[in-house]
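Summary for the funding panel

The consortium committed to producing paired sequence-structure records for every protein in the target list. Below we show the first two records in order, beginning with the earlier of the two.
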Amino acid sequence: MIRKRSLTLIEVCIAFGVLAVCFTVVFSNLSSSSKLLAKTEEARLISMRKQYFMERIVSIVEHLTPDSLQVEEKKVGSETFPVLTFVYENGLDRERIFSGQRRGELELKEGQIILSTFSKEGDEMREEVLFPGVSTVSFDLKTPSVLRIEITDLAKQTLPFAFVTVPKKEKPVVS
């Protein structure tokens, strides 16, 4: 009869050591992939914010009343913030008091770029968050027919935007 040899203590320790190295490699890869996934998700979110902001501003710029863009200074406490005011055609809105030609303001409030739309009488206002996570914003109208907006987010990344503000010409009516 052949007797089976059992494992020695050294062989068991070596097996546990190899197993520990394998687990270390697997868990470090999982940890780095989860960090990479979090960074990718953050980049996707920032990209979506930029795209929404650009789409919304383009829709406003396309419907601006000529020469209605103005940059004003708004004082809140001891700080002064730039406010972009304009008149634009809001079209049909789900709330009728905000339909048609309306006055709007674009400003930085509590770390967010806010679009404020005012009713015809000016007694009601609706606010829409266009870009959250902002530390500073600046508006530049020095170049004719170009609106420049520069945003610095909380990560100190500067995001420049430029929009052409020349109103579309009406198509001639052919009779």
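The next record, for a separate protein in the list, is shown here:
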Amino acid sequence: MNAILKTSAMAAVLGMTALSNLALADQSLVAAQSAVNFEARQMGVPIKGQFKKFDAKISFDTAKPETSKIHFTVDTGSATMGAKETDAELPKADWFNVAKFPQASFDSSAVKALGGGKYQVDGTLTIKGSAQKISLPVQLAQSGATTTATGTLKLLRLAFKIGAGDWADTSMVADEVNVQFKLALTGVGKI
């Protein structure tokens, strides 16, 4: 009888875990409603660009955000600033070196609820083989079945070897880059 009770309890736990994982597996990025933009300064003048291809694998539990995991990738070859000459430079070795590093990635290590739909997401950002620990403020908002995650990350491009060679001169291109994101997600529980 004791063995049957243990087996039943174990089956119940496994079943609940499977259902929980199934619900989290349904979370997905809606790329058509999402954007990853960046802004820097060249000789004091703001310049803007965007990444056209990115993806996310998300396991976000609104009831237990500390158990959440986020893996986000950006295809560095999809960077564009809207000018043919500039766009031709971005994939080269001095900038994103797309041939050697076709993707940049972020992997979360901790998610902390701050209240009011605000979260602090800590993790590792890897660009051009350089990994840096970062802390990212994220705001979540829901409308119907869609949850939108927004935020801005300030990073120093030279820490990731972006804009090497002659472009390392910060009087030409500022070291600080602001990356803004808006990620539309489905399958996230009520905030």
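Regarding this second record: Residues 2-25 form the longest helix (24 residues). The first strand starts at residue 28 and ends at 29.
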